[in-house]
Specification:
mainly alpha, two-stranded antiparallel ribbon, elongated
């Protein structure tokens, strides 16, 4: 509900492509950051890591995410309560996740691939949270779909073999570009 007015305004002014990619949701999100009671960098960092992981258990995983970002537990709780009130994060099936998904992918693209230098490499998340590999790969794939060359290059590095790609993402990967299609044909053609 908190996104109705910004999305309607973007639609009215011809931002349809950027709405679906999530890029244009970053700007309407920026005014909420001061209300979250932390610097924009702290809030964006915490929410971007949660976005990259897909969902985070509010227990142990959340404490690990807060430690990774360098946020103490009380500050993290305040950020999350304010983010929930702003319609940016939700608790669903005992897991915290960024909502809507378009914002999730835009935050990941912005935080990990568009800033120079990136606050920290997304590879660290794969190392620290290997159970979230599929969600991280999905976020990187979506950033590549949105035009991030850095995300595109990372995607290749994350996949020594595309046979390791989660089944549900294979079609999206193959349609990404000519390079992905050629790789898929070369790697999957010999598979019986």
């Amino acid at each position: 509900p908190g996104w109705a007015i910004p999305v309607a305004c973007l639609q009215k002014h011809g931002g349809r492509k950027h709405i679906t990619s999530g890029r244009s949701l970053i700007s309407p999100f920026q005014p909420y950051l001061p209300r979250l009671g932390a610097s924009s960098v702290t809030a964006l960092g915490l929410l971007s890591v949660i976005g990259a992981l897909g969902s985070v258990n509010p227990g142990k995983e959340l404490r690990e995410v807060e430690a990774h970002v360098g946020v103490d537990r009380l500050e993290g709780q305040q950020l999350l309560h304010e983010a929930a009130a702003a319609g940016v994060i939700e608790l669903r099936n005992d897991a915290l996740r960024i909502a809507p998904n378009a914002l999730r992918f835009a935050l990941v693209a912005h935080w990990f691939f568009e800033q120079r230098p990136a606050p920290w490499p997304i590879d660290e998340l794969l190392t620290q949270w290997p159970d979230h590999r599929d969600a991280i790969l999905h976020a990187v794939l979506e950033a590549a779909w949105d035009g991030s060359q850095s995300a595109r290059d990372h995607l290749e590095n994350f996949l020594p073999s595309i046979a390791e790609m989660p089944y549900g993402m294979m079609d999206r990967y193959v349609c990404l570009d000519e390079r992905a299609a050629k790789r898929a044909v070369a790697e999957l053609a010999p598979v019986p």
